[in-house]
From TrEMBL:
It comes from the Bacteria. Coiled coil: none annotated. This is N-acetylmuramoyl-L-alanine amidase. Residues 27-58, 149-335 are annotated as: Disordered. Residues 1-22 form the signal peptide. Belongs to the N-acetylmuramoyl-L-alanine amidase 2 family. GO terms for molecular function: N-acetylmuramoyl-L-alanine amidase activity. PANTHER family: PEPTIDOGLYCAN RECOGNITION PROTEIN (PTHR11022), PEPTIDOGLYCAN-RECOGNITION PROTEIN LC-RELATED (PTHR11022:SF41). It comes from Streptomyces cellulosae. Its EC number is 3.5.1.28.
Length: 538
């Protein structure tokens, strides 16, 4: 079989005879830690033109490299009814997949973000792995008499974690102290502690590794190992100094001054003769997220953060700010392990606007990403990068829609920028984004997929912690007012929902899939018993 060429375009390229437009979506950034081998995320689009108003077909067509695919159309308010199917050719194997259905049900946010001129209607994205050719067919159905205008195929190459480290226009913090781990999830001192320090639940920055962790030296939690991909970013903050300065005469002089610069990998070899600096390795994990051991400081000084995002955080402070000084409650839990945006390789240059904040988080909505369960957890970071690119470049949103992601191995990823411990307004549950956080499980749980025990536990612990920051019982119910017509509730209608609900409880969709939805009672019970929860006294 002849070897195929894989195109990696920079800028805009139109492939002759195919109509494929490749757009480099990364803003790039010198000093971002990216090296020559890194590959930025890219969005490739292919117009689906045709004379039949009810149907569009694309024969097998060679394309640039992509790993995630969906279809989109011009009018973001047009909820397409019909079917869209694709099949792809593996870039390495050269074999074609069977036909796969694309799921619908995405709805733009019920805010100015959703009214922006750039917003398009779109299917859910489907992860297909590295592919270099595609075939597609879209057919209008139900009440639809024609396919939407400006219909196109959107193909996303997520690049690698080193290719997306630029500062965003909207102040995406790239994990700037907003995740709580290194490349591998960890609850060591860091933003996990900072997050709990600013919580109304009064969480104590203990730095205890009570959450499942997968630090490189800890084989304890196999499910977390898939986050090795983000771990490769650790050299980014200070690649060169790490090993070159270690044998030098300055370890003792530099370590006390700057445990941050990723001395973590070098201090262990250097420690044998440097006992006074032994504490440095334990502090190092806190430095990558830029959180100092003095946890209250980050939450009290949002304006000093280097990016615009934290400057908007004061809107959250009424509910979280007054408590850092009182966050010494011995019973307060640490945050669960969360892979930061920096560690999964978010390209912050994609972020359009600064995050906005809610007064409080009253509920958590559970979602699934649909697509496929046939992914390796080592690919989870790439999937999240692909979804970020799709939500911004295809949907036209300001940032990734979900507040958190969980993969089938139980690894939790930070979603929308703004602070994992803050009530960041997401774009996940139309009509109820103004009250809630959204967590999405990677995979399809409607068509045979079954959520793993690790995934259910991660969702339970994360939900317990997030709700606990606002004094909300994860096993209770709450009454919320629908901010839009959701297909389940009319605008202004009162909805009584579980504080941990499925997407379908608030919006007319199959999400989070029958299997995951049926597991929600179990997840609520586990959240109620979670060590990460902090329920209000009754």
């Amino acid at each position: 079989m002849p070897k195929r060429t894989i195109w990696l375009a920079a800028g805009v390229v139109v492939l002759a005879g195919t109509g494929v437009t490749a757009v480099s979506v990364t803003g790039g950034s010198g000093g971002s830690g990216a090296d020559e081998a890194s590959r930025p995320a890219q969005a490739h689009t292919l117009s689906l033109d045709g004379k039949d108003p009810k149907k569009r077909e694309l024969p097998r067509t060679d394309t640039q490299l992509f790993s995630l695919v969906g279809v989109s159309w011009e009018d973001g308010a047009d909820d397409f009814e019909g079917t869209a199917q694709i099949r792809t050719r593996g870039a390495e194997s050269g074999t074609w997949t069977d036909w796969r259905d694309l799921d619908f049900g995405i709805r733009a946010p019920e805010t100015e973000e959703g009214d922006a001129s750039r917003v398009r209607g779109a299917s859910e994205p489907l992860w297909v792995g590295p592919s270099d050719a595609v075939e597609a067919r879209v057919v209008a159905g139900g009440k639809e008499t024609a396919v939407p205008d400006a219909l196109r195929l959107d193909m996303i190459d997520p690049g690698d974690e080193k290719g997306g480290k630029g500062q965003g226009k909207g102040g995406g913090n790239g994990g700037n102290g907003k995740g709580n781990g290194k490349g591998k999830p960890s609850t060591e001192p860091g933003t996990g502690e900072s997050a709990t320090a600013t919580a109304t639940a009064g969480a104590t920055p203990s730095g205890e590794d009570t959450a499942p962790t997968t630090a490189p030296e800890e084989p304890a939690e196999p499910p977390q190992e898939p986050t090795e991909a983000p771990a490769t970013e650790q050299p980014a903050p200070s690649d060169a100094p790490a090993t070159s300065e270690e044998p030098a005469q300055e370890p003792t002089a530099t370590e006390p001054d700057a445990p941050a610069p990723s001395e973590e990998p070098t201090t262990e070899p250097a420690l044998p003769g440097e006992e006074p600096t032994a504490p440095a390795p334990s502090d190092a994990p806190t430095q990558e997220p830029t959180e100092d051991p003095a946890t209250p400081a980050p939450s009290e000084e949002p304006a000093t953060e280097p990016t615009p995002a934290p400057t908007a955080e004061p809107t959250t402070e009424p509910s979280t700010g007054p408590d850092p000084s009182g966050s010494t409650s011995p019973a307060a839990p640490a945050a669960p392990a969360i892979v930061s945006r920096a560690d999964w390789g978010a390209d912050e240059s994609l972020v359009v606007d600064p995050p906005s904040y809610l007064d409080t988080v009253d509920a958590v909505f559970v979602h699934h990403t649909a697509g496929t369960n046939d992914y390796d957890c080592a690919d989870s970071a790439a999937i999240v990068r692909g979804i970020l690119t799709y939500h911004v470049e295809t949907n036209g949103w300001s940032d990734i829609g979900y507040n958190f992601f969980v993969d089938k191995c139980g690894t939790v990823f930070e979603g929308r920028a703004g602070g994992v411990d803050k009530p960041v307004r997401g774009a996940h549950t139309y009509g109820f984004n103004g009250y809630s956080a959204g967590v999405s499980l990677l995979g399809d749980y409607e068509n045979g997929g079954t959520p793993t025990a690790a995934a259910k536990k991660a969702i339970a612990d994360l939900s317990a912690w997030k709700l606990g920051l606002h004094g909300v019982d994860p096993e209770a119910q709450v009454t919320l007012t629908a901010a839009g017509d959701t297909g389940v509730y009319d605008t202004g209608e009162q909805a009584t929902l579980n504080t941990i609900s499925g997407h379908r409880d608030g919006y007319a969709t199959l999400c989070p899939g029958a299997a995951l939805y049926s597991a929600l009672p179990e997840i609520r019970g586990a959240a109620g018993a979670s060590v990460y929860g902090s329920r209000p006294e009754k």
